[in-house]
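Morning. Coffee machine broken again, so started the prediction first thing and wrote up yesterday's gels while waiting. Chain of 275 residues, entered below exactly as on the submission form.
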Amino acid sequence: MTTYIFDHVRPDTLDAYADFVQHQDRGVLRERLADGRLTCEQLCQMHSGRGLEATWVNGPGRIIFPRVWADLPLPGLEALARQLAATASGKRIIVTEDMAPIASAPWEAAGWVLDTHAVMATTELAGRIWPLDPRVQERPVSELLAPDLLGLYAALSAVGTIGDTGETDPAVAVGDDLSDQGKRLFVLMEGEQALGAAILTPHPSGTGIHMLGVRPERRGMGLGRALHAHLLAVAAQTHSRHGGTTDFNNLAMRRIFERNGAVLSEQKQWLTPPR
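Came back before lunch.
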C-alpha cells in the first residue's frame, strides 16, 4: 500500500516545487516569498515513493486549485482529498483537466460535494463575423443589482445554479463582478423586461463570457445564441480569442458554443467542502 506524505515547501525544495507547477520565473516566486505575499507554509505538497504527486496553494483566497500528476492512482486522489478536507478551512476546490485528473469518486469518498462539472470552450475571433442584435443593450456593471436583473437571475437560480459560480443566491453570484469595472454587462431586452444577460470579461490573452442566462420560460427560442453571438461580435473588436465555460450537462449551452464557432476543450469540477 502506497504511503502519502504531506508537507510544505522549504527554501531547499523550492526549485522542485517550481518544476512541478511549471513556474518558469523562479525570481518572481522568491520575491513573493521574501516580501510576504506568499509563505512556505502556504505552498503545500504531497509525496510518495515516486516523488512529488500533488501541490496546491493554501492561501487567504476562498478557492484551491490542486496540481496533480495525471497518473496518480485513485487511492492517492482520495488521500489528497482527505488532506484538503482537513486543512483547507472550508475553501472550495476547482479541479481543471489540464492540472489534475477529472474523477469525482475519490473526492466524494472524502466527503466533498461535486456542485459543478464544467466544460471549457474556446473561440477564435479573428476573421469571423457575428451579428449584433439590436435588442441587446450595454449597461453599467453596477446594474447587476438593479431589480430587473436581480429578478432575471433569481428566475435562473430557481432552476439551477447561476453562471459558472455554482451559486444560487444572485447577490452572491455577482459579487466578484461588481468589484471589477473592467467587465462589461450586456442585457437582452424586450420592452422593459430583461430576457437575458451576460458579462464580457476582457483579459490580455483573450476575453471571457460568463453569467449568460435567458429566462427559463423563453428558452428554446434562439435568444441565448443571439446574445452570445452579440458578445462575440463585441469581443472581436478588441480581442482575437474567447474562452468560456458551461456545465458539462448543459447541452443547450454547449450547442450555443458550437453553433457560434467554439471548440469544446478541457473540463473543470467545482467541489464544495465536507459539512
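The longest helix spans residues 74-87. Going to sketch it on the whiteboard this afternoon.
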